[in-house]
Amino acid sequence: MPVREIATKPYPDQKSGTAGLRKKVAVFQQPHYLENFLQAIFDVEASLKGKTLVMGGDGRYHNRTAIQTAIAMAAANGVAKVIVGQGGILSTPASSHLIRQSGAAGGFVFTASHNPAGEDGDFGIKFNIYGGGQAGEALTDRIYEASKVIAKYCIVENVYVDLDRRGVQSVGAMEVEVVDCVDEYAKLMQTLFDFDRIRDWFRRGHRLSFDAMHAVTGPYAQRIFVDMLGAPQSSVMNSIPLEDFGGGHPDPNLIYAKPLVDLMYSQQAPDLGGASDGDGDRNMILGRGIFISPGDSLAMLAAHLDKLPGYAKGLAGVARSMPTCRALDKVAEGRKLACYETPTGWKFFANLLDSGRITLCGEESFGTSSNHVREKDGVWAVLAWLNILATTGLSMQQIADTHWKQYGRHYYARHDYDELANDTANKVMQNLIARMPELVGQRFGDWTVSQADEFGYLDPVDGSKASAQGLRVVFGDAARIIVRLSGTGTKGATLRLYLERYETAADRLGWKTGDALAALATIADKLVQISEITGRKTPSVIT
Ligand code: VG1
Ligand code: CO
After folding, report:
1. Verdict on whether the full-model pTM lies above 0.90
2. CATH number of the domain where residue 208 is located
3. Is the CB of 490 under 6 A from ligand 1?
4. Which of 224, 225, 295, 494 is 20 to 30 A removed from 478 (C-alpha atoms)?
């Protein structure tokens, strides 16, 4: 098949954010837009030549079109083999696993994660490298530089691969293998968790409700929870992946997964509630009448994971992103585990995982995972919780109460201010940066500032540095206020304000989160002056 070289002009905006390149669908539909970005990857990452590449996506609008283009370009750029999920479907963690398992040189995950989809929605691509982790900062910078000077791309024309037919097809000399999207992932889960025990737990009448939010985890949840573990069919809600995710916002939090939340606080509540996002890497966890914040879930998993077969040897260490609450640190302290603090974005965990320094890691944005893959993993988190419930025989409420009694409780919330003008958002950051030097030692309400700085990270494995990773005002162990700009939005700027408060006294462990954080929110108003600078009275979303 003839390879064609097509002349093209660069687009100036192909800089990857927190997790890949994410833009409106209309942006990706511009002539040569996707082709330019993919060619920049092929040009920079020459190691893909002669190797295997994994491809799949979360099934959103434009997924199949993008995959056909990527296959045609892979063939033209000398890739030996493409492994693609049937129907173009692969969750982000399943892609990571397939890359690792097949020894592929990398993978393209077509997703804009939790961002809404459809013709007017968002599209995106994450480029993962050998080992299954997301391309790091240095590599994405090089791809960006290449995209700015691109003049031509290579493609095999008139390629059409039947994505629905499992088995091997060929595009010129390149092999394309269409695989079931769940098979290998489900096998991996069986090596980590005690399926017999969980099956027995269901048999004894315990219940799960999992909301796939019409996104990619539907087939995974159906196969694993229902077919393999024997949960009733009604355990999985919204299990059919739709191109527009049913018009919803596939972000598993208290706002966007409200039907599940309402169920968990009702008379009919099952023992465990879980939800995942567009590409299957996030998770929300609830018990009957109780929401487990992502930071708490991470800390509680750290405390219980060694009871599960895949982790019986214990944890090597743990890590969390900087804005994630410090509940994990308390468990690490108690269990004498190394605990790392990284910038926001899963790519920063990869070196820690690869070098065997950590087993478990997580983020406040409903992301948790272990060293089984190099992405966060929503279904994994639900399975871990199922296994913990089945093994301990406790309820979520009992686990949480016992945990807080032993380690204290971190009340936590994130306030997002969406679609701000870039200048306005930057003004908020600059204003706080300017005030930081005078803050240390100042008293606000019950708390005194112990530290105020801009977070930077020195990777302990390869010595690389990341600067400007968010502003933090720390009040010792008692509280933190953090502000940073999002790197995943597609419209204007999103400002995130994170509030954390720590309490240990027995009579302070049962507060409502909103009440517990009210005083801190008032302090944040004064300190960060978001309302004054942006004119916004309230956040767009509180999670
Ligand atoms: C957000 C979250 C971050 C997460 C990232 C990707 O980034 O805060 O914790 O890793 O999304 O998640 P930001 O820069 O908008 O705050 V996903 O589910 O896109 O892979
Ligand atoms: Co996601």
Report:
1. yes
2. 3.40.120.10
3. no
4. 494
